[in-house]
């Protein structure tokens, strides 16, 4: 890559004896946050930047909290500026994000640090440096605490930072920003495609009682069986075994819930393709499963009658179906509830046409090996490599 060669040439020319390292405290101010009072949160005003807002490389837009503007003078020392860096000090320690103009006015909450660079180092250069996995690992290893890690700003202030001349920093930022901008463009395209996919799915799967060739039927009437999961087989805890043609599912020895969820073992309860629905936890999450698996108690298994409905159409129909639960102290689905759920069932020919269209959209927005997610992942790896 020509840009990397240019950076190498600049370093050789401007740093013949190597790049100097300095402690962060020599390059930037490090500020601690304020203990905002949650009972004073308001509908708008000063955005409160909390730990949960600082995701890897960005600010989250979920569950934003605000502080009344009339308290601005009270928190003046904790008000943030455009291009300040904010870093998580508790939990997922070492995550960094930049404050954008659109996030202002904003105040720094406790257990979030603000890093405000001086003239010797570019904010964006420092952002890319902190955004490395190696820094997050170092931050984690330096932290104290058991389940909830806590990072010290004293440790952060002493962290060594490579400080090449500003011209070199600018070139590094230019190269890395080109990758992040491309990734942002791809993510925006992916979001647009997801909305397009949802629009077409909802349009194609919307039928009324008078639509020709479409009948509304219960899941019990279109499935060979609707059954609850059970206990794992006795031989589930065997050692790791590679998949075979006869049994295309690996066996894991660690017995984790995720492995159990997909029924990985060398014996099985279900021997046909099916759709499973989560009955507890993330209620209603559903997916197509391959043959030969063992559903655990948290899963309800639907084996479709393929003379009436295809397995993929059944899965898409559940996407637009409201799946309720039995209530109680622990919300959960039951087999009787699920059997009564009604879905539209057109002819098999119409089902196959709808599935063919939706599969193409689904691959574009969800396939991690061929679609936009694959391209985004490739760009992230490229960015990480050059960074």
SSE layout and pairing:
Elements: H1 2-14, E1 20-23, H2 24-27, E2 28-31, E3 46-49, E4 54-55, E5 58-59, E6 65-67, E7 85-88, E8 96-98, E9 106-108, E10 112-117, H3 123-130, H4 133-142, H5 153-157, E11 160-163, H6 166-204, E12 215-218, H7 219-222, E13 223-228, H8 257-261, E14 274-278, E15 286-289, E16 299-304, H9 311-319, H10 335-340, E17 342-345, H11 348-366, H12 372-386
Parallel strand pairs: 3-9
Antiparallel strand pairs: 1-11, 2-10, 3-6, 4-5, 7-8, 7-10, 12-17, 13-16, 14-15, 14-16
What this model shows, in words?
- The longest helix has 39 residues, at 166-204.
- A four-stranded antiparallel sheet has the order 2-10-7-8. Strands 13-16-14-15 form a four-stranded antiparallel sheet. It has a three-stranded mixed sheet with strand order 6-3-9, with no helix packed on it.
- The chain has twelve helices and 17 strands.
- A hairpin with a 7-residue loop joins β14 (274-278) and β15.
- Residues 235-265 have low confidence and may be disordered.
- α1 (2-14) runs antiparallel to α6 and α6 packs antiparallel against α12 (372-386).
- Helix content is 35%, strand content 18%.
């Amino acid at each position: 890559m020509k840009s990397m060669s240019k950076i190498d040439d600049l370093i050789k020319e401007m740093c013949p004896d190597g790049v100097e390292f300095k402690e962060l405290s020599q390059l930037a101010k490090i500020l601690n946050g304020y203990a905002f009072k949650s009972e004073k949160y308001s509908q708008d005003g000063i955005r409160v930047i909390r730990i949960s807002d600082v995701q890897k490389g960005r600010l989250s837009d979920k569950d934003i909290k605000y502080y009344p503007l009339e308290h601005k003078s009270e928190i003046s020392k904790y008000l943030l500026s455009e291009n300040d860096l904010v870093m998580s000090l508790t939990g997922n320690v070492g995550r960094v994000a930049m404050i954008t103009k659109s996030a202002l006015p904003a105040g720094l909450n406790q257990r979030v640090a603000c890093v405000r660079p001086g003239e010797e180092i570019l904010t964006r250069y420092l952002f890319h440096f902190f955004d490395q996995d190696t820094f997050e690992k170092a931050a984690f290893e330096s932290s104290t605490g058991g389940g909830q890690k806590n990072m010290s700003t004293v440790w952060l202030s002493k962290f060594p930072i490579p400080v090449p001349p500003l011209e070199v920093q600018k070139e590094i930022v230019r190269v890395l920003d080109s990758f992040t901008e491309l990734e942002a463009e791809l993510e925006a395209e992916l979001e647009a495609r997801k909305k397009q996919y949802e629009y077409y799915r909802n349009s194609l799967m919307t039928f009324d009682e008078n639509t020709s060739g479409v009948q509304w039927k219960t899941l019990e009437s279109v499935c060979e069986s609707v059954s609850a999961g059970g206990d794992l087989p006795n031989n589930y805890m065997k050692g790791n075994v590679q998949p075979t043609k006869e049994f295309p599912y690996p066996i894991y020895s660690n017995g984790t819930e995720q492995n159990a969820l997909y029924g990985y073992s060398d014996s099985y309860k279900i021997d046909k393709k099916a759709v499973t629905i989560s009955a507890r936890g993330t209620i209603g999450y559903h997916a197509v499963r391959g043959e030969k698996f063992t559903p655990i108690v948290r899963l309800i298994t639907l084996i479709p009658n393929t003379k009436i409905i295809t397995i993929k159409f059944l899965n898409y129909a559940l996407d637009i179906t409201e799946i309720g639960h039995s209530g109680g102290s622990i919300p959960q689905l039951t087999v009787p509830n699920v059997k009564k759920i009604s879905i539209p069932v057109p002819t098999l020919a119409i089902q196959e046409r709808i599935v063919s269209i939706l599969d193409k959209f689904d691959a574009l927005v969800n396939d991690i090996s061929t679609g936009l997610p694959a391209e985004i992942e490739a760009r992230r790896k490229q960015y990480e490599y050059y960074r």
